[in-house]
Amino acid sequence: MTKHLLRFSAICALWAGTLPVFAQTPGGTRAGLKAGASVAILDGALNASARARTGFVVGSMLRLKPSEQGFTVQLEALLSGQGAKLESASSTRTHKLYYLNVPVLLRQYIGSLFYVNIGPQLGLFINSNYGDYKSIEGSVVGGIGLETPGGFVADIRLNYGFSDIVSDSDEQAFRQRLGIGGMHNRVGQITVGYLFGKK
Prior knowledge:
Largest sheet: 8 strands, antiparallel, barrel
Structural class: mainly beta
Shape: elongated
CATH class: Mainly Beta
CATH architecture: Beta Barrel
Number of helices: 2
């Protein structure tokens, strides 16, 4: 799943990069709401095969006024359903994890509609139906999207967790003894939203 999302994002970014860059910017500072679907997996699960779990993402966004060159920063606060379906020899369990994700996205507009995002994200763990997880997770976010002058926004991105989310000290010690890395969130998101304010 992660490989396919990375390939798709790379192809779209290369395609968008062939478009002419315009000095036109999409208005001033604007705030809005967004919602969509997430496709998540837990990378590094022990004694189980991980399959993707479909969840949701919903939250708010604040896009600062772009520069004349089309560069800006977007701040978000997103409630995200994550996790995975973990299949072992004896059972299949769906691990449902919930995070409040706060990305800080550096954005460059390409053409009059499209943009590319990249930036760090802080994930605040809220709850899960199985297991104990660390309260804070760090990740990198990247993706592409479009924003119309009227405020409609569509976005596709990949959240690549780089911090170990396992909280159990016994499991951490076991992983260290065997030289096994930690468990990490990998999440693809597709969202639509609306930015309020002047064009």
